[in-house]
Amino acid sequence: MKMSGTMPPNETLITAAAEETGLRLDAFISMKLQGLGITRTQAQRLIESGAVRRAADKLPELRKNRRVSEGEGFEILLPEAEDPHIAAEDIPLDIIYEDEDLIVVNKPKGMVVHPAAGHNSGTLVNALLNHCGSSLSGIGGELRPGIVHRLDKDTSGLIIAAKNDRAHLALSRQLGSRSLSRIYEALVIGRPKDDSGVIDKPVGRHPADRKKMAVTDKNSRSAMTYFETICAYRGYTHVRCRLYTGRTHQIRVHMAYIGHPVAGDVLYGGKKGELGLDGQCLHAKTIRFIHPSSGEEMEFTTPLPGYFNEALARLRL
């Protein structure tokens, strides 16, 4: 693998931080490249194919269960992306910002981010393919072109898509190093004992229900959420949540774990149809990151959407 001052678009370098010491190589790679949709199984395939090398000595023979050490760097040669076969669809987009490198979109509640079983059309990716054409990054693979991070179907708010592979890699590294910051607002059931706090509990697949995630020590990854009260109502609390990690369903799982599930979130303890809600009352309100080309710190905020304000209005009656 050739290494120069400027890395090829499909080659990336990741380095282990102190808190990542001792992680298996496959788990380390999938965690660092979560923004590219690299699963642990895919990381194992990359290792087995010789696409992962230790930067210090370029040794190609690495094992997936190798433990990484602080400061160790690994060069990863990502395979060329496949041409997407997803149909471009003329779906309106609420574009907050756009340039030649990236696009920031305010995703509505109810829109699926990328195609999956049962959702082959009407997704954010279908809309982005229509708007951006061939300029989306291909690193995410055939079903996820340009997607840097995800939002659940019924979570509204800000999401970034990359328009070239260089920007995608840069934003993914920020996601892995936690310098890409995401702040959410949620309406939760009840009132937390403390007005603010940090929930530091690992999140993994639920042992009995594969559709759910859970706080668990088995096959899990570290997860940390900061929350603070914005306003308390009778039976509910409007909270702000900052993600220090980005696990699947993290806020929903963590708030349910402390006994305050997100209102309307029937999967994790919310009540169906409460406050007129259809799905969880959770909005990705603010996003901060370093622009991959200019190095400028960018921050975007979007107002609370109609469904959220309507729920708050019911509580004020």
Plain-language structure description:
The chain is 18% helix and 26% strand. The chain contains six helices and 15 strands. The strands form three sheets. Strands 4, 5, 6, 7, 8, 12, 13, 14 and 15 form a nine-stranded mixed beta sheet that branches. It has a three-stranded antiparallel beta sheet with strand order 1-3-2. The protein has a three-stranded antiparallel beta sheet with strand order 10-9-11, with helices on one face. A hairpin with a 6-residue loop joins strand 14 and strand 15. Helix 1 crosses helix 2. The longest helix is centred in the middle third of the chain and has 13 residues. It is globular, with a radius of gyration of 20 Å.
Largest beta-sheet details: 9 strands, mixed
Parts with pLDDT < 50 across at least 5 consecutive residues: 1-9
Quick one: overall form? globular
Amino-to-carboxy terminus distance? 65 Å
**Count of individual domains:** 3
Q: Evaluate the radius of gyration.
A: 20 Å
By CATH reckoning, the class of the largest domain would read Alpha Beta
Overall mean confidence score, pLDDT: 87
Could you tell me the number of beta strands? Answer: 15
Entry keywords:
317 residues, alpha+beta, Structural Genomics Hypothetical 15.5 Kd Protein In mrcA-pckA Intergenic Region, Chain A, Pseudouridine synthase, 3 domains, 6 helices, disordered N terminus
Q: What is shown here, in short?
A:
This protein is α+β, with helices and mostly antiparallel strands and 317 residues long.
Write the layout of secondary structure elements.
Blueprint: E1 11-15, H1 25-32, H2 40-48, E2 52-54, E3 73-77, E4 95-98, E5 102-107, H3 124-132, E6 156-162, H4 165-177, E7 181-189, E8 196-200, E9 203-205, E10 213-215, E11 220-221, E12 224-233, E13 236-243, H5 250-257, E14 282-290, E15 297-301, H6 306-316
Parallel strand pairs: 6-14
Antiparallel strand pairs: 1-3, 2-3, 4-5, 5-6, 7-13, 7-14, 8-12, 9-10, 9-11, 12-13, 14-15
